[in-house]
Amino acid sequence: MSFPDYFRVLAVPIVVTVAASCASPKNDSAMYELRGSTMGTRFVVKIVADDDNGMSESALRELVESELMLVDGLMSQYRPGSELSQFNRYNETTPFAVSDETFEVLAEAHRISAWTDGAFDITVGPLVEAWGFGVASEMEPPSDAEVEELRSRLGFARLRLNVEAHTVQKDEPLLEGDLSAIAKGYAVDRVAEALELAGFPRYMVEVGGEVRTGGSNDAGTPWRIAVQRPDSHEPSFQMTVPLTNAAMATSGDYRNFYEWEGRRVSHTIDPRTGRPLEHTLASVTVVTRWCMTADAVATALLVLGPEEGYRFAVANDVAALMLVRRADGGFDELLTPDFERVLSGEGVR
Ligand code: FAD
Prior knowledge:
Blueprint: E1 30-38, E2 41-49, H1 57-75, H2 83-89, E3 96-97, H3 100-115, H4 125-130, H5 144-152, E4 159-162, E5 167-170, H6 183-197, E6 203-207, E7 210-214, E8 223-228, E9 237-243, E10 247-252, E11 257-260, E12 263-266, E13 269-270, E14 275-276, E15 281-288, H7 291-304, H8 306-315, E16 319-325, E17 331-335, H9 337-343
Antiparallel strand pairs: 1-2, 2-6, 3-5, 4-5, 6-7, 7-10, 8-9, 10-15, 11-12, 13-14, 15-16, 16-17
The structure holds flavin-adenine dinucleotide.
């Protein structure tokens, strides 16, 4: 998978909290652990400081939180003043200027939408809202007529990006973007990259389950990441994954859903139908170099489903793990060859 060249080389791999070693740091390295809330979820950042580079824990926290607040302030649809919310209220078809950061995310979203034939599509925002998963929505299904009306006016191809001017233009005035499936990954990239630039190449950064690591953990071994078993009420793991200098993101139907007339209605929408997913694929975990990409590709593969998604991932050398729900409550594991490589410690291509 080639990385888009417009992306400023700022990011580094990310990680999640899980079975990281509890051993005390080797030699005289110090381990910092920062936790907090952001973007309606939690973040955890662990940093192994090999030598005293003079940066205090509070300065590290400030570095981490400033990156998270930047992304939240630009790309949250939960903040009426954010750049995304202003764009969503802009019902014109003339160009709308955005920041470099938002443009970077829109451009990667557009690339992945085109690559996955629209399975990933940030313009599903109004449908996400209509199905009860938006900022202020009731958890109940919309009417068929409403689904068709909303579906008729979405589509990533109706958003036109101008690379020179960093503007984005709507072909359909009522288009709205939803960056929930990519911007958390971007935030993790930014924190990872800021740590690298500050002289901390060994870290694990996690925001709401999107993760990236740099270097090794405090025991000098690869950071190990657990993949959660879907449907479990208490934290239980399907497996753990060694992750060094790479990113890992998971999308699933088991964290944000409601039951309606005996059926699970989850927050990932198939843009082709305008409806929540109805197949048995419970979760997709993707490992790539960049967390923004892993975040969006995991959602795209979840939309494509266990057969089409698996074929797409193998054909495109994507390191993906799919957990397919069985009638007996268990899960079948589908691993692509590139995910097997990651498990064997060879890392991502
Ligand atoms: P993922 O599986 O990564 O993505 C699913 C989400 O993507 C859906 O919820 C939907 O929004 C969207 N989506 C659905 N179908 C598609 C599709 N086909 N293509 C593309 N996107 C799709 N939540 C709060 O409760 N309060 C907040 O203040 C808040 N602030 C946020 C600020 C930012 C900048 C971001 C990015 C998100 C914020 N959120 C907030 C949402 C929350 O953090 C999670 O993003 C959300 O719960 C989904 O996370 P996930 O990893 O489970 O979903």
